Structure formats: structure tokens, C-alpha cells
User: Which sequence fits this backbone?
């Protein structure tokens, strides 16, 4: 039996959260998703701070990260993660609607593992997220901590 690992989803759009969870549920991954609404909350989760201070310590299998979020956007969060010695190996997949070249370039400069533009078509979105979930939560080997 394959161990299912946690997926951290940082997304402020409730509709995109719902679609992502639907896509992941097709492979029984949705119940292993922690949803946060911005970069500040994602950092609190990752560092076991704030409302997450009592959670079981551990790094998620992957962070699915939107770019355009309030308080701290995805680019700022990625920079924080890559500068943190404990978190720097965390796999990060930008799952965003941004096709802006500066966002793409900056994400890769900061060490994003993949950059996926959210398809507008529902079926394509579901398939893209399903494949991301299968790879990062089931197939990919985590780096040693």
C-alpha cells in the first residue's frame, strides 16, 4: 500500500480550491489536502505557528501555490521557503492563472519545481491537477530532511 502524503494548497479563490479538491478526489487524494488562503497562512502551517502550532510536524509532499494572493503572494512565499534551511527542499508547484513572463521567470529563478497555468476549461483543469497530485503525492520521492 502506498503511503499518502499531505498536499498543501495555497489558494485564495474558493472556486479554484473546490475544483482542485474535486480533481484530487478522483485519486483519493483530497482528504490529504490542507488548504490555506495566502502566503502568511502557508508559512504558519509550514513552520507550525499560529493556528497550526499544535499540528504534527512534517513537510508536505508538495505545495500547490497560487501567485496572486492577499497579504503575501506566491512569489514572496516561494522566496521565503527557498531561504529557509528547513523548508528549502520542499517541492513547490505554481498552480496559477498568471501567464505573465515576469512571474514565470521569477518563479524559476527562485527554484520552483514546476509552473502550471490553470486551464480555463474545466475538464483540462481537473486532468492537470489530477496528474500533479498523482506525481507529487504518490510517485515522487521526497528529499531527505
Assistant:
Amino acid at each position: 500500500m502506498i503511503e499518502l502524503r499531505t498536499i498543501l494548497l495555497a489558494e485564495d479563490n474558493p472556486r479554484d480550491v473546490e475544483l482542485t479538491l474535486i480533481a484530487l478526489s478522483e485519486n483519493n487524494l483530497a482528504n490529504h489536502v490542507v488548504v490555506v488562503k495566502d502566503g502568511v497562512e502557508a508559512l504558519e502551517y509550514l513552520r507550525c505557528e499560529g493556528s497550526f502550532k499544535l499540528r504534527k510536524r512534517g513537510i508536505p509532499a508538495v505545495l500547490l501555490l497560487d501567485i496572486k494572493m492577499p497579504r503575501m503572494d506566491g512569489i514572496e512565499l516561494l522566496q521565503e521557503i527557498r531561504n529557509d534551511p528547513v523548508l528549502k527542499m520542499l517541492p513547490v508547484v505554481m498552480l496559477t492563472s498568471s501567464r505573465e513572463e515576469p512571474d514565470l521567470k521569477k518563479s524559476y529563478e527562485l527554484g520552483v519545481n514546476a509552473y502550471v497555468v490553470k486551464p480555463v476549461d474545466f475538464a483540462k483543469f481537473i486532468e492537470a491537477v489530477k496528474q500533479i497530485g498523482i506525481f507529487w503525492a504518490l510517485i515522487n520521492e521526497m528529499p531527505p530532511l
Observations:
- The radius of gyration is 14 Å.
- Residues 62 and 122 are 23 Å apart (CA to CA).
- The beta strands are 7-10, 33-36, 62-65, 92-96, 114-117.
- Residues 122-139 form the longest helix (18 residues).
